[in-house]
Structure to design on (726 residues):
């Protein structure tokens, strides 16, 4: 017995709420009624990442993609598609609503994601160079070595519009050109894999899934700028990525794709790995170079830029992992193809690590110009447990919070900066109504206090002072004047810090102050944290009317501060309570109140 | 392999491309591909991998199936992920494939040629290398 067709019904949260379960049941019923239940299997699947057009039904092997399906459509799908082998055209997804029939590309492009950087991730075995080669791997290198001059490579990268994916968005081709034109017989290529934002793991996954794409891009960059040596600076806390890089480097050396006289072209290029100890500041390029040189990782003023004076004083190109992973595709598909994707000034795609209070957390890659709403509510499948969206933090501790009203602006370097956040490396943390902005700002500021290298005063002192003020507010001891102080210090840090760690450390605080000032004031005036996150402002009590005296809360309390006789209402001693919330979570009768 | 020339690289690519398209390795025409990025491994992908191998042995499928690893597919919320590619069946990505459901997958999909319900997920994007 073998099924001829498979019908996949979306069982994601969004589709379930629009009756996908009924569709599923009707399909089963119809298949039975029409006597084809042996020919077709109906199954439920996870979210298709296209919730705005839900409920979604997909039929295999024909790959028919049906949108906005209703339970009453089940009969037609079974009768037409399964029995007669004809697609139900009226339900097919069309990109262009006016066209009568769905074209093939519409069906293929229903997906919001588009994968250039992650093209091989989850497809090839990352420990097999042969599989990388089979999927056009090292073809861009062939071009770079045998068909193009270094100037042509740079021109192509410039024309593609590729910009740095580490956050700042500097045009990659211009960086390469500056290094090429910079005098010197020894030059270096450095891959920045020191990914340190809380919640970000784009670079780790790229290296783990497709290490050869980075190596290939580095050799191409070397050829373009006239460098024969490269370093990959990666943090030691990424053991699997390091392991796979080591395997990849060895394989490339064995094949003659790294080392002397690559593919008989006469061009030499070698790569070494340098492990970082996990300091956030070492992601800043000048600090990173210091660290490679064996010195303490601290930034230095720019200019001179590394392209002029970098590693050991030599011209150096520093590119982020994601930037490099784009390079082979730019050469194989061409600048025209690449620049056709994205917005006017931000070309190509961006990888984001989508985390937080979201249904489908994961690693996503979307064309520039996609809106945050599409990312959060389609690809991400919306907010967990039906809670209300509060904001999304892009750019980690360097970025800001973006709120509901700005969700429809298309993502680009410029648009995110205009919204008071930044592209950053690609961490995207979604927050819901249970998150407190004071608490979040305090968290990010504590991170910056820890990670500030201490070289310049604005960052060293500013982060500490801002953290102190935020801590005070979170404890209900804040004053009105504290908000002005936060803004004043924040602005000074932004202007006067030596590097972008300090220069952007105030962003989370400043942006939450702009969008959620009322919540700060609530903490100050009413001593209230509406999300219940600021522990010092939360009080746990037991409602004597609901408490049955089971004693579960008292057994769970770690202090313990809950007392009471069996089968009689219990009491929490507020003076001893550490506000861990164990009793609140344990009570089965809703008798523990948090306010 | 010794160091290659340009022509050798091109020949190797052509040969490997063919193998990848045929999806036929050493006479085995079924591939089970386990996502083994850090996220997958943290969610138990190594145990899943072992459980799949054990289930294949139990059901005498070892001779027909290659079990491979790959990187992260991006579906972190449903790790571990496993893709099954075999003749006469559409390629399918399964999520939440912890070791305890590995045998169900082998029996349902590989032996009985049907899909394992409630574990199916869509590949998140088209393959730009093929298109």
């Amino acid at each position: 017995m073998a099924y001829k067709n498979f019908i996949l019904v979306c069982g994601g949260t969004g589709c379930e709420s629009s009756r996908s379960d009924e569709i599923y049941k009707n399909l089963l019923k119809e298949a039975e009624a029409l006597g084809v239940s042996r020919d077709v299997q109906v199954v439920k699947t996870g979210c298709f990442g296209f919730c705005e057009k839900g409920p979604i039904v997909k039929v295999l092997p024909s790959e028919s993609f049906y949108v906005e399906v209703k339970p009453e459509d089940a009969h037609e799908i079974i009768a037409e598609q399964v029995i007669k082998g004809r697609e139900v055209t009226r339900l097919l997804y069309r990109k262009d609503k006016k066209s009568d029939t769905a074209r093939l590309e519409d069906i293929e492009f229903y997906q919001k994601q588009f994968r250039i950087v992650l093209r091989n991730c989850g497809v090839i075995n990352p420990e097999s160079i042969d599989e990388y080669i089979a999927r056009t791997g090292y073809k861009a290198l062939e071009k770079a070595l045998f068909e193009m001059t270094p100037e042509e490579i740079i021109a192509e990268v410039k024309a593609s519009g590729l910009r740095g994916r580490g956050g700042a968005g500097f045009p990659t081709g211009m960086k390469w050109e500056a290094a090429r034109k910079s005098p010197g017989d020894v030059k270096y290529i450095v891959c920045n894999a020191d990914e340190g934002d809380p919640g970000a793991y784009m670079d780790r996954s790229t290296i783990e899934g497709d290490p050869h794409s980075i190596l290939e891009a580095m050799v191409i960059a070397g050829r373009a700028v006239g460098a024969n040596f490269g370093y990959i600076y990666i943090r030691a806390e990424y053991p699997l990525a390091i392991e796979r890089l080591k395997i990849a480097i060895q394989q490339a050396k064995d094949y003659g794709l790294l080392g002397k006289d690559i593919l008989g072209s006469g061009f030499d290029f070698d790569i070494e790995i340098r492990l970082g100890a996990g300091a956030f500041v070492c992601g800043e390029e000048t600090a990173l170079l210091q660290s490679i040189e064996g010195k303490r990782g601290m930034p230095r003023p720019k200019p001179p830029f590394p392209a002029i004076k970098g590693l050991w004083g030599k011209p150096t190109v520093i590119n982020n992992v994601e930037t490099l992973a784009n390079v082979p595709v730019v050469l194989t598909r061409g600048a025209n193809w690449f620049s056709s994707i994205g917005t006017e000034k931000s070309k190509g795609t961006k990888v984001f690590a989508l985390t937080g209070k979201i249904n489908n957390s994961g690693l996503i890659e979307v064309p520039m110009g996609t809106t945050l709403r599409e990312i959060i509510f389609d690809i991400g499948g919306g907010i967990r447990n039906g809670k209300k969206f509060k904001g999304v933090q892009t750019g980690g501790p360097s970025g800001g919070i973006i709120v509901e009203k700005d969700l429809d602006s298309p993502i680009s370097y410029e648009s995110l900066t205009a919204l008071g956040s930044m592209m950053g490396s690609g961490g995207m943390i979604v927050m819901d109504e249970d998150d407190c902005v004071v608490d979040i700002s305090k968290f990010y500021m504590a991170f910056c206090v820890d990670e500030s290298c201490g070289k310049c005063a604005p960052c060293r002192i500013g982060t500490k002072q801002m953290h102190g003020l935020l801590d005070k507010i979170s404890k209900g001891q804040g004053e009105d004047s504290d908000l002005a102080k936060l803004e004043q210090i924040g602005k000074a840090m932004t202007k006067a810090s030596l590097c972008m760690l300090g220069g952007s450390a105030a962003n989370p605080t400043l942006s939450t102050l702009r969008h959620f000032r009322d919540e700060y004031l609530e903490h100050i005036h009413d001593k209230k944290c509406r999300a219940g996150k600021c522990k010092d402002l939360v009080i746990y009590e037991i409602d004597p009317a609901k408490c049955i005296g089971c004693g579960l809360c008292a057994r769970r309390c770690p202090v313990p501060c809950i007392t009471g006789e069996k089968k009689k209402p219990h009491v929490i001693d507020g003076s001893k309570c550490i506000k861990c919330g164990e009793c609140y979570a344990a009570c089965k009768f809703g008798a523990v109140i948090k306010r | 392999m010794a160091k290659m020339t340009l022509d050798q690289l091109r020949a190797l690519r052509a040969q490997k491309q063919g193998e990848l398209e045929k999806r036929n390795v050493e006479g085995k025409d079924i591939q089970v591909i386990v996502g083994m990025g850090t996220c997958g491994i943290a969610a138990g992908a190594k145990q899943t991998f072992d459980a799949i191998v054990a289930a294949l042995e139990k059901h005498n499928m070892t001779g027909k199936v290659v079990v491979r690893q790959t990187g992260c597919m991006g579906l972190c919320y449903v790790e571990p992920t496993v893709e099954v590619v075999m003749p006469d069946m559409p390629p399918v990505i399964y999520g939440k494939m912890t070791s305890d459901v590995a045998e169900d997958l082998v029996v349902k999909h590989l032996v009985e040629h049907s899909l394992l319900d409630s574990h199916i997920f869509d590949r998140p994007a088209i393959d730009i290398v093929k298109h």
About this structure: The two ends of chain A are 60 Å apart (CA to CA).
